[in-house]
Structure formats: structure tokens, C-alpha cells
Specification:
single chain; about 90 residues; mainly alpha; 4 helices; globular
């Protein structure tokens, strides 16, 4: 499995865990056009998800950005993580 697929797999797994912890049901499919505000996570849920992903992946891309961006879709969210992944490849 390539690193991009591995990162995407980790994001999906943690996304599902975060939604389940909040009492929701994760989407059956994580398409790139999935609107984050319709995913079942609140802003607090996203904050927890980003913190969890920092623990799992070793970086928080949102603190590394020159200009803050709030992703609207799952694809945008994932691409932000992939953009900074090479800096933290072990």
C-alpha cells in the first residue's frame, strides 16, 4: 500500500471513530465530494479528529499552513494532509 493510500485509510478510520463516539453513523462511502458539514461531525468533533490524526500521523497540517484554510469536502480535508505528508515521512 502506498503512503497516500495509507494516510487516506487512517483518516477514514479515525473519521468513523470520531462520528461513532458522538453517537452518529459514519457515511457508508467516503467520497471526495462528501460535504464535511453533512458528515455527522460538529466543530468540536473535527477538533478532536485533527488532534487524533496528529497523534497517528505525527503532524497537524493546519498549523503548518501559511494561510489558514477550512476544507469544505472530505477530498479537500484529505488533500491537506497529503500535501504535508512528505515532510513527515519516516
Amino acid at each position: 500500500m502506498d503512503s497516500e493510500s495509507k494516510i487516506r485509510e487512517i483518516i477514514i478510520a479515525e473519521f468513523c471513530t470520531a462520528i461513532t463516539r458522538r453517537g452518529g453513523s459514519p457515511p457508508t462511502e467516503f467520497r471526495d465530494d462528501l460535504v464535511l458539514l453533512e458528515s455527522g461531525l460538529t466543530s468540536l468533533g473535527f477538533a478532536i479528529l485533527v488532534t487524533t490524526l496528529e497523534d497517528k500521523l505525527g503532524y497537524d497540517p493546519f498549523t503548518l499552513m501559511d494561510e489558514p484554510v477550512y476544507p469544505r469536502t472530505f477530498g479537500e480535508f484529505t488533500s491537506i494532509y497529503l500535501k504535508f505528508a512528505d515532510q513527515f515521512a519516516g
